[in-house]
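Q: I have 252 residues here and want to know how they pack in 3D. Can you give me a structure?
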Amino acid sequence: MALLAVERIKLFSTRSPWWCMLLALGLTLGFTGLIVANAGGVFVLSVATTQVAYNFGLMVIMVMAALAITTEYRFGTIRATFQAVPKRTAVLVSKTVVVALLAGVVGEIIAFGCWGLSRLIKPDASLAIQTADDWRNVAGVGLVYVVGAILALGVGLLIRQTAGAVAVILVWSLLVESLVGLIPTVGVKIQAWLPFNVASHFLHGDQQLVAGGQGASGIHYQMGVWVSMLYFAGVAVALLAAGIVAANVRDA
């Protein structure tokens, strides 16, 4: 508990988490408002549609998670922490718990905020949360944010440099996973196994599927929605474990 308290104090003693949380909330609510306000002719407004902008906030929260560890290496505070607590794994697990819980809370606030804003903009639309799929569409966003934060911490531990870690996170999630689909024959098949595509399938898979199991993007997912979540979590935990091993082996 003492380690958790220390990591909480370290996290909130800097301005970057506060700015990241505000930016994540503002971006996601802003884009959701624009999308919902223009809904109608092009697409049908549904509970799932209220969450289509979740990725904007996710990217910001992942940057926040990466900064939580890379700034410690940048300013050397991680050395003092490891000197005070020689068990590095315990320190890093505590940091992960604090950052992941914060990411989850922010994710839920954003998700239900976007849903509430959508109901205000389109009060006549059918946006009541009634089914299990509806709850997964909205409440599942917080779970994706938790796993995304864990993944970002793992990348931060492996790279250590803020610019490098942020570049890898953003380029991979926003660019690489989309461009893979351009590879002839196998590109779409590979996309079905890439972590952020799989996370999107967890949130919106049932709404994206049409005849034959093909998604709106042409991706044929091999997993159910909850198995997709477990797969995404497995990738994140594997990266975190690799980062912790690297932190124990390398000098701080």
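Q: Anything worth noting?
A: The chain has one domain: 2-249. The radius of gyration is 19 Å.
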